[in-house]
Amino acid sequence: MYKVSTNGTSARIMSKNQSPIHVIGGGLAGSEAAWQAAQMGVPTIIHEMRPARGTEAHKTDGLAELVCSNSFRSDDALSNAVGLLHEEMRQCGSIILTAADANRVPAGGALAVDRDGFSNMITNAINDEPLIEIERTEITEIPSGDWDNVIVATGPLTSRKLSASILNTTGEDTLAFFDAIAPIVYRDSINFDTAWFQSRYDKGDGADYINLPMTEEQYLTFLEEVNGGEKTELKSWEKTPYFEGCLPLEVMAERGPETLRFGPLKPVGLTNPRSPDQKPYAVVQLRQDNALGTLYNMVGFQTKLKYAEQTRIFRMIPGLENARFARLGGLHRNTFLNSPLLLDGQLRLKKDPRLRFAGQITGVEGYVESAAIGLLVGRFAAAEKLAITLKAPPLTTALGALINHITEGAASSTFQPMNINFGLFPPPKIPEGKRKLRGRERKFAYTTRASNALKAWLS
Q: What pTM was estimated for this model as a whole?
C-alpha cells in the first residue's frame, strides 16, 4: 500500500515482506527511530531488555521512560536552539514531541511533561503500530550479519556485556564509560581586551589557544572560591575512580595551591602581548572545540561544581566577565562513542555499515537531542531499505547542526557530549550596514534561516 504521509515523510510504502530494521533499546532515541522507519513503511523490531533485566535508573518497563528530569527545556522556537529543535522535530512527525505536547505540564517557557502519561502514550502508540514489533529480550552482543540493518540506541546505561561487544567491534579506546566534561564558552562572549591567542611555546600554528591571564591575587581568590563552591554528589551507581590525567578541577585545587598552577593553569611558555615584561601568575587556556571556531573549551576545567557556582566562579576569570556558556562542566556515568572517528554522515559504523547508532551513545547530551538523532537514524535506515537517497538536513538547521557536530564538526581527540546550541551552527550573515547582530536579533537570524532550510529539506 502506498499513501501520502502528513508528517514530513513524502510517502509510506508498507511491506511486511521486507526484512526488518532491528532497534536495540526502547528509550527515546530507539522509540523515535522505530517510529520514523515505520512511518516510511519499513517493518521494525525494538529489542528492549526491560523488564527481563532492569537498570539502576529505570523504574518501569515503559518505552521512552524519563529517568531524570521531566523537562525538555525551552520551547521557544524563535530565540532558543533547543526550542528550534523541538519545532523541527514536530515538522518531521516526531512521536516524542507529539507525546510531549499531549502530556505537557505547566513550566513557564519550558516544555515539561507528565512522565507517566508521556511514556504510556508512546508505548501504546508503538504497540498499536502494525509495522513495529517489541521483543522483551536483552541483546548482549553486536548481532551477526543475519541482521542486515541494525540501530544501537542503548543510551548512557548500556549493559556491560553489550558495551564490551561494542568495544570489541569498534576498537579499544573508542567508548567512554565516564563523562568528565569541561565547560564550553561562546567565542563572541570572551573579552579580547584581556585575552590573547597563543600556543604554549608557540607550538602548532602558534595561536591555537585563547589565553586568560591571572595575577597572584586573582588566582588565590579563584582557588578559594573553587574549594568553597557547592558541589554535586555522584549517585552510588555513578561513582568510579578518577583518572590522574583527567581530575576534576576541585580535586586538583584540594591538593594544594600550586597543583593547578603547575597543571592546566601553568603560565610557562606564554607572553601577554599587552605586558610582555610581566609574566602572568597563572593562565587559563581555552581550546577551539568545533570546526566553525564559535565554541571554546576550558582546558582542564572538568568539575563537580553545581551549575550556578560554575557560572559565578568562572566569570571571575579575567576575560570571562560576560562569558556565555554553551555547556557547563560535569562528571557522571555515561557511555558514548568517539563518533567523529567512528561514524559516517549517516551515523553508520565505518567498519561495519550495517550498524547505526542513535541517541546519547553517539555523544549528544539531553532528551531532545537523543530523540532527534533517533529521528534521523530511523529515516536514514528506512531510506536505505527502500533504496532511497536521503541526505542529512542542512547544517543551518538544528537537526543538521547536531548531526554535523557528532560526525564531522568536532575534533575526535577532544570529543565530549554536547547539547544543541547556536555555536554549532554557521554564523548568520550580517546585514549590510551592521557591524554585528546582537541578542534576540542574532537568535532570530539563526531560527528564521533554519526554518526556511528545513522546509526545503522536507520538500
A: 0.71
